[in-house]
Design goal:
Blueprint lengths: L20 H13 L10 H12 L19 E4 L6 E6 L4 E6 L9 H11 L3 E4 L3 E4 H8 L7 H14 L7 E7 L1 H17 L5 E5 L5 E2 H9 L4 E6 L11 H9 L13 E2 L3 E5 L5 E2 L5 H16 L11 H5 L12 H5 L7
Parallel strand pairs: 3-6, 6-7, 7-9, 9-11
Antiparallel strand pairs: 1-2, 2-3, 4-5, 8-10, 11-12
Helix pairs in contact: 3-4, 4-6
Length: 342
C-alpha cells in the first residue's frame, strides 16, 4: 500500500558517536534486572541475592558481569503503588549505574493497570527545566501527590552518595528499558540541572518518546552522550507517534494521537537499530531510512499486530523485545555478541 509523503522533521541538533559495545550489553543487563525489584520492603541482602540470580539466567550467558558491589549493597526503590522502580549499583569498575524498570504486565493486577495508564497519558505537560514532556511519564517520575516519589527517592540517594564521597572519580551511567528509558532521560537532565551531577552516558532500550521538540532541544544542549536501541517492528519506540507517523495514520483513516505541529514528539540520542537482517546498525536517520522504518510501524498497526506488547513477563518470554517477531533475534543475541554493521 503506498503511503503518504512524510512531512519534514523539525530541526534538532543531530547527536554523534557510537556506544561502547561491552558497556551497552552491561546496561542492557542492568535494565533487565530491574524487573526483579518487586518488594516494597527494602532489604539489601535480598536485593543482592536477586541480582546474583538475575546474572546467572540462561539468556544472560553472553552478557559480561555487572560487577556490582555488595559493600555497599545495591539500593533498590519501589514506588508506593508498585508501578515504578529503579536500582542504583556501585561496581568494581568504578561506576555507578542507575537503572529504571519498565512497564510491568497487566497480569500484575492494579499495579499493572496503573502502570499502563501512565503510558497512555500522552498529553504534554510543561516542566520548567525539561520543557514539554509526556504527561504520564512525568507523573510517574515527579508525582507531587506522593511523599515518596521516584525523583525524590533518586536525588536523596544520590546526595547521600555524594556526601559519602562515593561519586568522586566514578563514571555515572543511567539506563532503562521501555518506560524506564524515558525516566532515564528525565533523571539525567534533572540531576545535571539541579545538582550538577553529570551522567557519562544514558542508554535506552525500546523506549517510547519522552518529550517534544522543545524537550529534545533542551536535552541536546546538556551534552550528555545518549544512545537509544530499538528492534525493528517494535511498536513502543514509535509511541507517541512523530509528526510524520501521525500524518500517515490520519491519511489512512486510522486512529492517531493528536499532534501539535509546532511541537511534536521526537526521540533523542544516537539510534542503534536492529534491522531486518538482525544486524545492529547506526543509521543516519535519513528520509529513506525513516520512511522504511515508519512503513514497518504503520503496517504493524494496520495488521493489528501487537503480540507481546501486553506480555505478562516481558523479560522471560520476549527478552525485552516487547513483541514476538518470528525468527528475529533477541536483544541479548544482538547486543551481546551479535552482528554489527560496519
Amino acid at each position: 500500500m503506498p503511503l503518504p509523503k512524510i512531512a519534514a522533521a523539525p530541526a534538532i541538533p543531530r547527536p554523534t558517536g557510537k556506544p561502547d559495545p561491552v558497556l551497552t550489553c552491561r546496561m542492557l543487563k542492568a535494565s533487565y534486572c530491574t524487573y526483579d525489584v518487586s518488594t516494597r520492603t527494602y532489604d539489601a541482602a535480598a536485593h543482592s541475592a536477586r541480582l546474583e540470580r538475575c546474572e546467572t539466567r540462561a539468556e544472560l550467558q553472553r552478557a559480561p558481569t555487572l560487577g556490582h558491589s555488595t559493600t555497599p549493597p545495591p539500593f533498590a526503590y519501589l514506588s508506593p503503588a508498585g508501578t515504578n522502580a529503579f536500582l542504583i549499583l556501585q561496581t568494581s569498575r568504578d561506576e555507578i549505574i542507575i537503572a529504571f524498570r519498565g512497564t510491568i504486565g497487566l497480569g500484575s493486577g492494579l499495579r499493572g493497570y496503573f502502570d499502563w495508564l501512565n503510558n497512555f497519558q500522552a498529553a504534554r505537560v510543561s516542566d520548567e527545566q525539561l520543557g514539554n514532556v509526556h504527561f504520564g511519564f512525568h507523573n510517574a517520575m515527579f508525582d507531587r501527590q506522593l511523599t515518596d516519589n521516584v525523583w525524590e527517592a533518586l536525588w536523596r540517594a544520590m546526595l547521600r552518595l555524594r556526601a559519602q564521597n562515593a561519586l568522586a572519580g566514578k563514571k555515572l551511567y543511567i539506563t532503562g528499558h521501555s518506560k524506564g528509558g524515558a525516566l532515564a532521560l528525565f533523571a539525567a537532565a534533572r540531576l545535571k540541572k539541579e545538582f550538577g551531577i553529570i551522567a557519562d552516558a544514558v542508554y535506552q532500550f525500546e523506549s517510547p518518546r519522552a518529550g517534544t521538540v522543545d524537550f529534545a532541544r533542551r536535552y541536546s544542549e546538556l551534552g550528555i552522550p545518549t544512545f537509544r536501541f530499538e528492534n525493528r517492528g517494535d511498536i513502543i519506540p514509535h509511541m507517541p507517534p512523530e509528526a510524520d507517523e501521525t500524518e500517515m495514520l490520519a491519511a489512512l483513516g486510522l486512529p492517531a494521537l493528536t499532534v501539535s505541529w509546532w511541537d511534536p514528539y521526537v526521540a533523542v540520542g544516537v539510534l542503534g537499530f536492529i534491522d531486518w537482517n538482525g544486524t545492529l546498525q547506526f543509521p543516519d536517520e535519513s528520509a529513506e531510512f525513516k520512511a522504511k522504518r515508519s512503513q514497518d510501524f504503520i503496517e504493524n498497526v494496520i495488521a493489528g499486530d501487537a503480540r507481546g506488547v501486553l506480555s505478562e513477563d516481558v523479560r522471560a518470554r520476549l527478552q525485552l523485545n516487547h513483541r514476538i517477531l518470528p525468527g528475529a533475534p533477541s536483544y541479548f543475541d544482538v547486543l551481546c555478541g551479535g552482528k554489527t554493521a560496519p
